Amino acid sequence: MAPPQLITDFMRLMLLLAPSAAIICLVLAGLGLRQGFVPDALVGGNFAKWMFWAIVFLTLPQLISWFPSFGVPASLPSGGIGTGWMANLQSGLANFVQNFLLTRLATSFAAFFVLRAILDTVQGGHPLPSILGAMFLLAIQTTLNLIKSYNSGTSYATADVLDSLWNYVAGTLCPIAAGLAVIGGIWNFVSRRPVMPMVGATLGLLTVSAVWKLITTMM
Prior knowledge:
about 220 residues, mainly alpha, 10 helices, flat
């Protein structure tokens, strides 16, 4: 027996709103970069948590494809939403997230983070968390497109996206961060601050992939 139209449309509504939920998670991830110390935020903090949930929402259909192997029937309804008010709700929420939250509000948050970076510097603090948060908030659409491009469409899509993001971070972002660490080391030398932490950061960022391959080989 086919499920009622209202239940089918509700399932379609949840699936169609999953990309909007992913955008919300990415905005929260950008805000999480400003909370606490940067390494804690990147690994095991709010940033990592919201990034993971963004990936889950973007690969939700592929995750649901595992349910039949557990003995739970989970056929996803195709097509558009037949119930009028549900279709209007989905369209309105998607428009709100895309045009208000992503286009306007995230940009405003980034502007305030730039101001906060200046105030942190004036007070003797470190502007890096605020600068990283602002850069991430301004690049949410690019990050969203990147995650979508890594979606393999298979039941392993969530893990594939995580693996691809790891390779992107290790192969693209870490060398850039190493260059910034060199600049930070020069700045610390000029201002007579400890230089060795920056030297260690540079070497570590440049050898992330090699260290990971060494660990996997040893295992």
